[in-house]
Design a protein that fits this description.
The structure is a single chain. By secondary structure, the chain is α/β, with parallel strands linked by helices. It has a single domain, classed as 3-Layer(aba) Sandwich (Rossmann fold). It is about 35% helix and about 20% strand. It has six helices and seven strands; from the N terminus they run E-E-H-E-E-H-E-H-E-H-H-E-H. The chain has a seven-stranded mixed beta sheet with strand order 1-3-4-2-5-6-7, with helices on both faces. It starts with 5 loop residues before the first strand and ends with a helix. The model has no long low-confidence stretch (mean pLDDT about 90). Bound molecules: guanosine-5'-triphosphate and magnesium ion. Guanosine-5'-triphosphate binds next to helix 1.
């Protein structure tokens, strides 16, 4: 798949404002700071379409992007970061939960994990939520540029041990910096939205 156009549609902070236009959706989920917004920018070829930051908790709303005029990318707020106040984390949790419950057009979730660390308890918590929604996963091990190839094999092993469900879904090794895995991921996404 190629991305021909990408535009920011809206940021949603309350479940009542979720769009309801019937278009297919691909969501991007993962811990805060794992690189969801950077990955969306890399896929769309737009440096600053989704706001990225060194400060975890940058994305505080569910951001919807219209891709090729035909489907949505959904940038979920990252969760599980201790520096974000509990009250805010709880609010995001409820918002994400409401989104997942209602997203009838959600075709797949791109599940981002940091290639440098094995799955963390928060990752497994998110996995359990998503399993309840019965949506296909596309696991992505991101920030792969930050570690040598031997360590990537180690990360895949850790995924097989701790999250066999994700490991079984053909994880993609990815880097927003070098664009490693970009076309593979686009093609996997394309299969769900065509
Ligand atoms: P939240 O919105 O807080 O949930 O974060 P996020 O998951 O959207 O992460 P974001 O894309 O903002 O990236 C967090 C930090 O990681 C930024 O400093 C990015 O530049 C960096 N980063 C993201 N992806 C990569 C990557 O593939 N390689 C490297 N080296 N850095 C990356
Ligand atoms: Mg973000």
């Amino acid at each position: 798949m190629q991305i021909r156009s990408a535009e920011f549609l809206r940021g949603v902070a309350r479940s009542g404002d979720l769009p309801d236009d019937g278009l297919p959706q691909i969501a991007f989920a993962g811990r805060s700071n794992v690189g969801k917004s950077s990955l969306i920018n890399c896929l769309t070829g737009r440096r600053a379409l989704a706001r990225t930051s060194n400060t975890p908790g940058r994305t505080q709303e569910i951001n919807f992007f219209l891709i090729n005029g035909a489907f949505h990318f959904v940038d979920l707020p990252g969760f599980g970061f201790a520096k974000v106040p509990l009250r805010v984390r709880e609010k995001w949790g409820r918002l994400i939960e409401a989104y997942l419950r209602r997203a009838e057009e959600l075709r797949a979730v791109v599940f981002l994990l940091d290639a440098r660390h094995g799955p963390q308890p928060n990752d497994l918590e998110l996995l359990n939520w998503l399993l309840a929604v019965e949506v296909p996963f596309i696991p992505v091990l991101t920030k792969a540029d930050k570690l040598p190839k031997t360590k990537i094999a180690q990360a895949l092993r850790s995924l097989r041990e701790k999250a066999p469900i994700l490991a079984a879904c053909e994880p993609i090794t990815f880097s927003a910096k070098t664009r490693l895995g970009r076309q593979t991921l686009l093609d996997r996404i394309g299969a769900y939205v065509s």
